[in-house]
Design goal:
The chain is an alpha/beta fold and about 260 residues long. The chain is about 35% helix and about 15% strand.
C-alpha cells in the first residue's frame, strides 16, 4: 500500500526531473535504483524523500525488512505498477526498488582529514559508470574519501548505481578547481601523487604510507602536463605486454592497492 498521498505521476515526474544535474544540485537530492544502493543510503543515515517499489518484482527479504523499517521511521513508500516502474528504471531487468535521497557531495572544507589518510582524486572522468567503479574501488581499499574535479557529476544515477551504494558510505567531495585541491592538500600536509605513463618511477618506489592524494585523469587523455607538474610525485604502472594503457578504474585500483600494501607492511 502506498503511504504517500501524492499521486504516482508526481513521483514519475520527480524522477525524470532528477536526471538533470541542475535539478539535483538545486534540491540537494539524487535518485538511485537497486537493493544495495537504497539500503546503503538508508543505513548511512541519509534522509529519504521517498522509496519507490514495484512489489511484484521485489523478491528480496532483506529489502522488504528494510522497507518495513523505513515505513516505521516515516519514510513515504510509493507502490508503482510494473509499467510505471519500467518508465523510471535504467535497467533491463529492474529489481523493483528505487529511492529519492537527500545526498550531495560534501565540500572540500567539510572533508575530514584524519592522520595518515589517503584519497583518490579524479580529474575529468567523464563516464558515470567509471566514476562509480572508482568510488567502489576506493572504498574497498580503505580510502578516506574521493575528490571529484570536472567530468561527470558524482550524483549521476549511473555513477551511484555503479558504486553499489559505497557513495553513501565513503566521503565524496566535489572540487571546483585544481587550485582548490592543491591548496587543500598543502594545508593538511597531504602529498599529491599524479599518475602518468611518462613517469620515471613505478608506484612502489614512492612512499605512500604517509597522507596521500592519488590523482587520476580522464579516460582518453589522463592528467594534463600542468597538473602533473604541480603534484609532489608522479608514478606509473610498468606494462609488460603490448598494451600501452589501462582503464582508469583498473589503473587506480592497482595503485590504491599499492598504497594499502605499504600501510599494511
Amino acid at each position: 500500500m502506498t503511504d504517500d498521498a501524492l499521486p504516482n505521476r508526481h513521483w514519475l515526474r520527480r524522477v525524470r526531473a532528477l536526471r538533470d544535474q541542475a535539478e539535483r544540485e538545486r534540491d540537494g537530492v539524487c535518485y538511485v535504483e537497486g537493493i544495495r544502493q537504497v539500503i546503503a543510503a538508508y543505513e548511512g543515515g541519509h534522509p529519504l524523500e521517498a522509496v519507490l517499489i514495484e512489489p511484484r518484482r521485489l523478491r528480496s527479504n532483506v529489502a522488504w525488512r528494510t522497507i518495513t523499517a523505513m515505513r516505521s521511521a516515516g519514510t513515504p513508500v510509493v507502490e508503482l505498477t510494473t509499467g510505471e516502474f519500467e518508465r523510471i528504471s535504467a535497467r533491463d531487468n529492474p529489481v523493483g526498488i528505487a529511492a529519492i535521497i537527500q545526498w550531495t557531495p560534501v565540500t572540500l572544507a567539510d572533508l575530514e582529514v584524519p592522520a595518515n589518510s589517503f584519497y583518490l582524486v579524479t580529474d575529468g572522468v567523464s563516464d558515470a559508470g567509471n566514476l562509480g567503479t572508482l568510488i567502489r574501488t576506493a572504498d574497498s581499499l580503505g580510502a578516506s574519501g574521493i575528490i571529484v574535479h570536472g567530468g561527470v557529476d558524482p550524483s549521476h544515477p549511473n555513477a551511484l548505481r555503479a558504486s553499489l551504494g559505497t557513495a553513501f558510505r565513503l566521503p565524496v567531495s566535489r572540487a571546483g578547481s585544481l587550485d582548490e585541491i592543491l591548496e587543500w592538500a598543502q594545508h593538511h600536509t597531504v602529498q599529491t601523487v599524479a599518475t602518468s605513463a611518462r613517469a620515471k618511477q613505478p608506484a612502489w618506489q614512492v612512499d605512500m604510507a604517509r597522507s596521500t592524494a592519488l590523482l587520476v585523469g580522464s579516460e582518453g587523455e589522463g592528467l594534463d602536463q600542468e597538473t602533473i607538474d604541480r603534484c609532489d610525485e608522479t608514478v606509473l604502472i610498468p606494462m609488460a605486454g603490448t598494451a600501452t594503457s589501462l582503464n582508469v578504474g583498473v589503473a587506480a585500483g592497482i595503485i590504491l592497492y599499492e598504497i594499502q600494501r605499504q600501510r599494511s607492511s
